[in-house]
Design a protein that fits this description.
3 strands; 3% strand; globular
Length: 479
Amino acid sequence: MKISFTKITAAILALLLLTFSPLSPMPGIRRAFALSIEEEKKLGEEVVREVEGKFTLVRDPALLEYMNALGQDILKTAAPQPFPFRFYLLKDPQLNAFSVPGGHVFLTTGIIELMESEGELAGLIGHEIAHVTRRHISNRMDQQKKIGLATMAAVLLGVFAGDPRIASATIAGSLATAQTLFLKYSRDDEDEADNYGFKYMAGAGFNPKGMNELLDKLRRWGSFGSETIPAYMQTHPLTADRMARVEDLLQIYTGRGSWPRSTSDEFRRLQIILLSQYGDLQRARNRFQSLAKDDQNQFWVLYGQGWIAIREGKMDTANDLFEKALVLRPKDPYVLTDLGRAYLKQGRFDLALQKLGEASILHPKDGNAAFFLGRVYQEKGQDQLALENFNRSLRSGLENEDLYYYTGLIYGKLNQLGQAHYHFGKSFQIKGDREKALFHYKTALKYSGNDFREKERIEKEIKNLERGKKDKEKPPDRF
């Protein structure tokens, strides 16, 4: 069951609370990191597993490829990191973003919808990266009274599951009395993240004023009343002092050089797809109506309206809008893919094949184009061609339950039952059905024979699922 993003905010706040003990130094005093690199990795993986089980992740490979490429650009200015960074999109209307140890950075669709430029997105990502690179969670933990990862996972689980009794049982003794003192990053943490965030985004070619503009939007949004304060402001408070220090930082960076990057087509495509496919439809219509006042936005208006039509099941309308967009950009592979998808849904397979084939030639690494092309071949009874395109889609990094499900169906028809069950297992795992996923993985294991590499792959999936199941059944540690 998916839950409100406020739960995950509370989880991070609970984690921050647990990182203090009566013997911990006061905020601002730097000390040795209490978590090892390996522990940070494991903790990050635990959080990711919880997020995947409780939230809807946007798994569009083109959008994630863009997000990760932008994140890697921003990371280039940072020193080499001991773990790879990954960037995630969560379907949630709240204005929030957060990062956890191990290099995992999460942004909601709601906060991206608020933005007006790629520079604002770069600023937010840079700030969250800085919290990880400066290890702000790790360096708050007491070295001798270090809280075990199992306890932290239990607290996170209790909050994610919406059962505060678990978290309350874990937060015991004198720690409970400190609850209200450490619900936010310290002033020093935020100052350092602002400073390094500016450095990172500037190194990637973005004017640091983009971060100021986003923070200003968040402050204005929060001024409407306490009930509408963005979740991001609760964990990253935008005090007057902090805003003044950010302005000082901006003055320092002003005039240091040119800023070649401000926004991009990739950012606009990300924002329009998130708005039209995952956001509030009326807000999406209002946004496109506003954009239509400028003739230079005509392509993006048509593109966004086409996505809204698909969401509403109006395939003829979507076809018409995408065809008009193609007149303005005849070789845009993404519009060709979306048009092919609409034709597929209508059962117009020859037209779908034409558009998707052209999109795949223009952008051979696009997992969406490959997936829908595979679906067309599957509908036409050309199973081998369908399988080739499904596997090409998987290699691109696309991960969704439909891709794995249809791939499983094809393998079943081809009597490759081990592969069929494995892909069904992946489909149910993404869907959040642990029991059915385990059933299919265990069945796939029976067909693996002497293929040790395949057996190892399946056993790894089973181990991860069973470990998660045991963690959920295990009572939280006590102090």
